Amino acid sequence: MYTSPKTSLSSQLLRWYETHGRTLPWRETRDAYRILVSEVMLQQTQVSRVLGFYDRWMETFPNWNELAKATNAEVITMWAGLGYNRRGLMLRDIARSVAKNSEPTTEDGWRILKGIGPYTAAALAVFANHKRTMPVDTNIRRVLGRLLLAKPFSQLDDDERIRRKSIDLMKSSRKFWEIPQALFDLATIVCKKTPSCAECPLRKQCPMAEKFIAGRVRIPKAAIKKAKETIQVGKSHPDRIYRGRILRLVRENPRIKESAVGGRIDPSYNSVNDAQWVRAMIDRMIADGMIERDRSTLHLSKGQ
Ligand code: SF4
């Protein structure tokens, strides 16, 4: 029987995944809610850290309806420790939209929901709805860029070609929805920034293997640019870290005086130079629905 190179690539990959793939709770389900929670938690947070948070979240908010009923303060309390708190509120807003209308069943349908970008929509479509589509994140971009485009370090503008070509890869595979998961694991374990091609199950089919093994590929110092963060002049951390501290402070000290916040979040706080900076961060957190100001005190948002 004729076996196309792409067919054998996907079956090789899935065979490797059977023995090397990570067992994770969100991989054992087609429940779109559970999959979305994992995807949002995994944005900028490592798998090992997400696991505990994910189980606790599911105990408290097991489905769209339970999360839809949660107040800002309940969401923020449960999200504590994951960082980027706005993500928890966004997840709750998506749950409200699904509970009110209905759960989408296509990639385009997911895209309509505010807060769901192209990657997450594709992830939901393939994992929950079993549609043949490839969610391209930095890991999958790297592996498929090498395998399908023969590019050692693909860029964002390669995503469309990667997506088109990967549909072929999924076409003939029975368990095509496992291919992205297998690629995530291959990217984490083998096809890293500096890949271990000699140990790769796909080295025979990969156009980049020989070049990497022979050391003919220059590994750039920063293949992927980090998102720019706002850092206040003279401060050692980005604002995101100080906003996290403010939130923790308000959570642990209900009705804390706003004037006490600066000194509690930053040992180098200077009331003359830094008051405006702290005030601006608090204003932004109020606008984001995380905390509320009551005259001179702050508390977690009771709203919504
Ligand atoms: S052979 Fe090397 S470059 Fe190709 S997929 Fe495997 S690890 Fe990545």
Describe the fold and architecture.
- The protein has 304 residues and is mainly alpha-helical.
- Among the domains are: 97 residues, Hypothetical protein, domain 2 (Endonuclease III, domain 1, Orthogonal Bundle), CATH 1.10.340.30; 62 residues, Winged helix-like DNA-binding domain superfamily/Winged helix DNA-binding domain (Arc Repressor Mutant, subunit A), CATH 1.10.10.10.
- The protein is built from 15 helices and three strands.
- It has a three-stranded antiparallel β-sheet.
- β2 and β3 form a beta hairpin.
- The radius of gyration is 22 Å and the shape is globular.
- Iron/sulfur cluster binds next to α9 and α12.
- The site of iron/sulfur cluster (SF4) has 14 residues, from α9 and α12.
- The ordered H/E elements are HHHHHHHHHHHHHEHHEE
**Small molecules held by this entry:** iron/sulfur cluster
Helix-strand makeup class: mainly alpha
User: Rough shape?
Assistant: globular
Strand coverage percent: under 5%
Average pLDDT rating: 91
CATH topology of the domain at 31-127: Endonuclease III, domain 1
The CATH homologous superfamily of the domain at 31-127 corresponds to Hypothetical protein, domain 2
Query: Main β-sheet, in a few words?
Result: 3 strands, antiparallel
Distance between the termini: 61 Å
If strands are numbered along the chain, what order do they take across the biggest sheet?
Answer: 1-3-2
Count of DSSP helices?
A: 15
Rg (CA only):
22 Å
Question: Which runs of at least 5 residues are low in confidence (pLDDT < 50)?
Answer: none
What's the CATH C level of the domain at 31-127?
Mainly Alpha
- Amount of helix: 40-55%
DSSP strand count: 3
CATH architecture designation of the domain at 31-127: Orthogonal Bundle
